[in-house]
Amino acid sequence: MVSLSGVLFGTMAMVVVLSVFNGFDNIIQDLYKKVDADFILQSKEENLFHVDNQFINTINSIDGIQNCSEILEYKMLAEYDDHQLVIKAKGVDKNYLTVSNLHKHLILGNYLDGTQNFIIVGNGIFNKMSLKLLDFEKPLRLSFFTGSKTLDLNSAVQSRSFYVSGVFNTQVEFDNTHIVLSIHDLRDFLSFSRLCSSIEIRIKDSVNYKHVEEALRTKFANTFVIKNRDEQRPFVYKMVRTEKLAVYLIFSFILIISMLSLIASLVVLLMEKQSDIAVLHVLGLGLRKIQNIFLLIGFSITFLGGLLGGLSGLFFCLLQDKFQLIKLGQKSFFIEAYPIKVDYVDLVIIQLIVCTLGFITSYIVSRNKKLYNY
């Protein structure tokens, strides 16, 4: 019973922790979906590249693509009153509404309506610089270095006034680093022709993600880097996968420790059953078959403990997901309780780990001839 309980609670803990971890992972992915496109195209050769209607039509002609948007990003200095901040100006075209969900996360004002020199800013920038909506008396000044070789500072720096028409809140670092404006205003400000830093792509909900990715790589892999959602945030997703692997390793080690109770139980059982083993041997049962009996007993204890632990963990996860029994220690403005997402692949992997450890442990103990003293 002790060995069964050890396996049961170890398995249950592993199921619950991994489900909570998957819940946080799901929240992170949902947060970045607010600002990240399904795919982006960036030039392999240079930071900026020229686009035309034929190029855009070629992208839109790929089966499964809903729309694409021309993007131009440029680092600038933002000034308002006594506040200064280095930000990224992101120029977007009218198709950005169908590519990104950013317009759904405005907390103040309105989205870009085509009015010249109107911008929307992240909540972090809005607060850091103490900005005001549509402040026509004190507009936000954006400046950048032209790169011209001159000692005259006025010629080397270009500045223009912009007016904040809206504030977005995505709850990721985008709020603290970006302002969004019309790509036509940004190109005019930079004196650029139809240049882009990237193309953001949105696919239809009903299509296969991998098929669209393969089609994009087939057409553009020679000249462009194609990035999916994971590749757009490599550090975030690598960190998530590394932490999940660490959870597997830590709880596998805990299960290995819990197998010590199984070893003890099998050893005690063998010592108690020496007379019964002797009777079976006299009746003609070979040593290997007697060893298989105790191997089966040990594996059965592990399998039953793993099964009950998995079901108990799944039941607890369902309760937490429905009733939010365990709250987070600190208040959050978008999540109150520990999130849960049950991944049935994880459940299968956990059962395989438990059964494998149980079989190895039972095999080592049952095959030890020193324990058969009949």
Instruction: Name the shape in a single word.
Output: elongated
Instruction: Please identify the structural class as seen in this structure.
Output: alpha+beta
Radius of gyration: 31 Å
What fraction of the residues are assigned to beta strands by DSSP? Answer: 15-25%
Query: Reading side by side through the largest sheet, how are the strands ordered?
Result: 3-4-9-6-8-7
| Percent helix range | 40-55%
Tally of contiguous helical segments: 13
From the N-terminal CA to the C-terminal CA, the straight-line distance is 26 Å
Average of the residue pLDDT scores: 93
Q: What is the ordering of alpha helices and beta strands?
A: HEEHEEHEEHEHEHEHEEHEHHHHH
Weakly predicted, low-confidence segments: none
Whole-number total of structural domains = 2
What's the oligomerization state?
A: single chain
Instruction: Report on the biggest sheet.
Output: 6 strands, mixed, barrel
Number of strands: 12
Structure notes:
It is a single chain. By secondary structure, the protein is α+β, with helices and mostly antiparallel strands. The chain folds into 2 domains: 2-30 and 236-371, no CATH class; 38-232, no CATH class. It has 13 helices and 12 strands. It has helices at residues 2-33, 53-60, 96-99, 123-128, 153-156, 174-177, 183-190, 209-220, 229-232, 234-272, 274-282, 287-323, 344-366, and strands at residues 39-43, 49-50, 65-80, 83-92, 106-109, 118-122, 140-145, 157-168, 178-182, 195-196, 198-203, 224-227. A 6-stranded mixed beta barrel has the order 3-4-9-6-8-7. Strands 2-10 form a two-stranded antiparallel sheet. α1 packs antiparallel against α13 and α10 packs across α12 (287-323). The longest helix has 39 residues, at 234-272. The radius of gyration is 31 Å and the shape is elongated. It starts with a helix and ends in an 8-residue tail after the last helix. The model has no long low-confidence stretch (mean pLDDT 93).
